[in-house]
From TrEMBL:
<dbReference type="GO" id="GO:0035999">
    <property type="term" value="P:tetrahydrofolate interconversion"/>
</dbReference>
<comment type="subunit">
    <text>Homodimer.</text>
</comment>
<dbReference type="InterPro" id="IPR020631">
    <property type="entry name" value="THF_DH/CycHdrlase_NAD-bd_dom"/>
</dbReference>
<dbReference type="GO" id="GO:0000105">
    <property type="term" value="P:L-histidine biosynthetic process"/>
</dbReference>
<dbReference type="InterPro" id="IPR020630">
    <property type="entry name" value="THF_DH/CycHdrlase_cat_dom"/>
</dbReference>
<keyword id="KW-0028">Amino-acid biosynthesis</keyword>
<dbReference type="GO" id="GO:0009086">
    <property type="term" value="P:methionine biosynthetic process"/>
</dbReference>
<dbReference type="GO" id="GO:0005829">
    <property type="term" value="C:cytosol"/>
</dbReference>
<comment type="function">
    <text>Catalyzes the oxidation of 5,10-methylenetetrahydrofolate to 5,10-methenyltetrahydrofolate and then the hydrolysis of 5,10-methenyltetrahydrofolate to 10-formyltetrahydrofolate.</text>
</comment>
<dbReference type="InterPro" id="IPR036291">
    <property type="entry name" value="NAD(P)-bd_dom_sf"/>
</dbReference>
<dbReference type="Pfam" id="PF02882">
    <property type="entry name" value="THF_DHG_CYH_C"/>
</dbReference>
<keyword id="KW-0554">One-carbon metabolism</keyword>
<feature type="domain" description="Tetrahydrofolate dehydrogenase/cyclohydrolase catalytic">
    <location>
        <begin position="6"/>
        <end position="120"/>
    </location>
</feature>
<feature type="domain" description="Tetrahydrofolate dehydrogenase/cyclohydrolase NAD(P)-binding">
    <location>
        <begin position="139"/>
        <end position="280"/>
    </location>
</feature>
<dbReference type="GO" id="GO:0004488">
    <property type="term" value="F:methylenetetrahydrofolate dehydrogenase (NADP+) activity"/>
</dbReference>
<protein>
    <recommendedName>
        <fullName>Bifunctional protein FolD</fullName>
        <ecNumber>1.5.1.5</ecNumber>
        <ecNumber>3.5.4.9</ecNumber>
    </recommendedName>
</protein>
<feature type="binding site">
    <location>
        <begin position="165"/>
        <end position="167"/>
    </location>
    <ligand>
        <name>NADP(+)</name>
    </ligand>
</feature>
Length: 283
């Protein structure tokens, strides 16, 4: 039987409706959530993300400010802007779009962001808080994945979850969120032996590898939930995930499409974090 398709656009819409309602309540107290998005250079994918973030802010009644800096911006100049935004009371969330040009040290820039405004949850303070399960900001993509899993009604506690990929942005925080919900979690990566065998144990598979067709039907246990975080282009330039969707959807119980799965959720969780930051800001 074919898997149920998890509709990321529909789940995302619900999250945004909730955020918009709560933003309206904050507005009654005179607080308008504000997000600053900083981009350095002209990376086409990043420009699309930034445009989408700006539009999403407007839709839920947030203030947003965009800072598009030239490719040759120095690290000192970028950090100076971050510090200015740290002090700006209209701004509750600061997002510096990654990747940054190679002459800028990403870690130094992230460390300069006030942890209370770090709506990406990339600052070491927030990463540490995620580790101990005491966090204000959810890492956006993993939090979006948790919402999608919740939308299936499948219980996470006690399940075997396999995360493929160990990045700081997705794989590692993803494993933590699953663990906080009492899953048994395995992280696979490029050095994992017998990867297919490990993935086949999973009740819930989350792939964040960045390779077209990486997860094949023989790697998936019948009835598993499959979440595809991959964002790749196939040989025809078409957007696709890591999972062989046509074949795996014949084996899985629930599966996310690409596009229309995890992608729309990430910005929704960013809005949620900006709202949280605004609600916690001092009057
Ligand atoms: N580049 C790709 N994804 C992200 C993200 O979630 N946050 C930031 N800041 N940059 C990104």
């Amino acid at each position: 039987m074919a898997a149920q398709i998890i509709d990321g656009r529909a789940v995302s819409k619900k999250v945004r409706q909730r955020v918009a309602q709560q933003a309206a309540q904050l507005a009654e107290r005179g607080i308008v959530p504000g997000l600053a998005v900083v981009i350095v250079g002209e990376d086409p994918a990043s420009l699309v993300y930034v445009r989408n973030k700006k539009r999403a802010c407007a839709e839920v009644g947030f203030y947003s400010a965009e800072y598009a800096l030239p490719q040759q911006t120095t690290q000192a100049e970028l950090i100076e802007l971050v510090r200015k935004l740290n002090r700006d009371e209209r701004i509750h969330g600061i997002l510096v779009q990654l990747p940054l040009p190679p002459h800028i040290d990403q870690k130094a820039v992230i460390a300069a962001i006030d942890p209370h405004k770090d709506v990406d949850a990339f600052h070491p303070v927030n990463v540490g808080r995620i580790m101990i399960g005491d966090y204000a900001f959810l890492p956006c993509t993993p939090a979006g994945v948790m919402e999608l899993i919740a939308s299936t009604g499948v219980e996470v506690a006690g399940k075997e979850c396999v995360v493929i990929g160990r990045s700081n942005i997705v794989g590692k925080p993803m494993a933590m969120l699953l663990l906080h919900q009492n899953a048994t979690v395995t992280i696979c990566h490029s050095r994992t032996r017998e990867l297919a065998q490990v993935v086949r144990r999973a009740d819930i598979v989350i792939s964040a590898v960045g390779r077209v067709g990486f997860v094949t039907a023989d790697m998936v246990k019948p009835g598993a939930v499959v979440i595809d975080v991959g964002m790749n282009r196939d040989q025809n330039g078409k957007l696709c995930g890591d999972v062989d969707f046509a074949a795996v959807s014949q084996v899985a119980s629930h599966i996310t499409p690409v596009p229309g799965g995890v992608g729309p959720m990430t910005i929704s969780m960013l809005l949620q974090n900006t709202l949280t930051a605004a609600g916690q800001a001092k009057d």
